[in-house]
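Annual report, structural modelling task.

Input specification for the guanine complex:
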Amino acid sequence: MTVQGFRGEILSLRHDPAESPNAVRHDADGLLVVEHGRIVARGAFADVSPRFPGLNVKALDGLIVPGFIDAHVHYPQLDRIASHGEQLLDWLDRHIFPAEKAFADPAHAAEVAEAFLSELLRHGTTSALVFGTVHAASVDAFFRAAEARGLRMACGKVLMDLGPEGLKDTAESGVSESEALIRRWHGRGRLTYAVTPRFALTSSDAQLAGAGKLLADHPGVLLHTHLSENTREIAEVAARFPDAADYLDAYDRFGLVTDRSVFAHGVHLPDRSCERLAETGAGVAVCPSSNLFLGSGMFDFAQAERHGVRIGLGSDIGAGTSLSLLHNAGVAYQAGLFKDYRLDPLRALWLATGGSARLLHIDGDVGMLAEGQEADFVVLDDKATPLLARRTAGASVVERLFALQVLGDDRAVRCTYVLGQCAWDRDGVGQKA
Ligand code: GUN
Ligand code: ZN
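The model returned the following structure:
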C-alpha cells in the first residue's frame, strides 16, 4: 500500500511562535495523506478526503504531533541515567567515563544502540543529535542500527585527546577516524555526521583546530559540543584559554561557531556569547532536566529570545532524567519561571519539533508535518493516566498540551510512526520497536 491516510486531531507549528504570529496549525478533525513515507496532503478531513477517493484511512485516537527531535543526547550513557551525587566534572569522572570505556567493545555498542533507539521511539522521539564515544566503532554501531530502522539521525565520534586514560584519542587519529566516518555515513539515507569535540576541556588546541578543519572540508556536517554548562567547568575553561573573551570564543577561535553548530546547555552565557550565537546562526540545545539533575542552573530563555538565539530541546541522557521531550518541556517551563520566563506550551512543542529540526538542518524534511515532509509523527494520549484524563476532560488543545508536558511521559505516547510506518505501538497492536 503506497498511499495511506491518517485521520485524527493534528497539531504542529510552522515556525517559532515567539518570532511571528500564525505559527499554529491545528486540524481538529484532520487528515494526513502519506505516499512513500512523505506527506502529500494535510488539512481538515472534510477538505482533503474528497481529493483522494478510495483512500485507505486509518483513524488515530489521540493528538497527532510531529515526531520529537532530541537536539542533544548521549546514547552510551543510557544505562547511567539516575547516577547519584555529583555535579558535572565529578559526575563525568565517577559515572560516565567508566561507562563509556565499555564501548571499546563493538558488541556492547551495538546492544546499547538498539536499546537506545527502542527507548527513543517509546518516548515519541524520531530524530536526535547523538554523542557516540571516543571509539569510532560506537558510531558505526549507532548508524547501522538507525539505518536499519529507517530513522533520521545525526551522530559523531567524540574527540577527546585530553580525556582520561583509556578514553582518549590523539589530534591526528581523531581527525582521520572522523574523516572515515564522514565518508562512510554522512548523507547516506537519513543520516548526518556531527563533528563532536566533547567540550573545550577535553581537546587540545591541535584537536580543536582539527575539528575546525573537518568542518571547513565537509560543509554539510554539523558541529556538536557542550558550552557553559557548569560554573566550575566555565572557570576551568577561562583558566585554560586566558585570551578568549568567553567560553564560546574558545571555540570560535578554531572555526567551530557556524550556523551548523549545536551547543548543548548554554546555561551561563554572557550577552556577548548570545550576540555571537545569533550573528552566526549557531544553535543551543536547551537541556532542562539535565541542568536540574546536575545542579548546573537554569537556562535563560528571555536572554536568548532578546538576542534572537536559535534554540531546541534536548534530553541530555544520562544527565537528563527522562528521554521524554514532553517531560523535558514541562521541566523547561518550571525552570523558566525561575528566570521570569513563562514558556508557552506551543513554543515548547516548537522547541521539541521544528526548533530542534532547524538546529540539525533537517527542517526541510521533518518537524512540522507539512506537505512534502517525511511522515514521522507521534500520537499522544491525553488520557494516558487517570489524572491526565481528569485534567484534560473538556479542555482546549493548548491546555491539553500543557497537561501532557507537565504530567505526561512515555505512557502518553500511544504510537510512533516513522516514514508513515508504525514503529512503536504502546497498546501492542501492530509493529513494535
Ligand atoms: N560536558 C562534557 N561531557 C559531558 C557529558 O557527557 N554530559 C554533560 N551533561 N556535559 C558534559
Ligand atoms: Zn551532554
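The chain has a mean pLDDT of 97.
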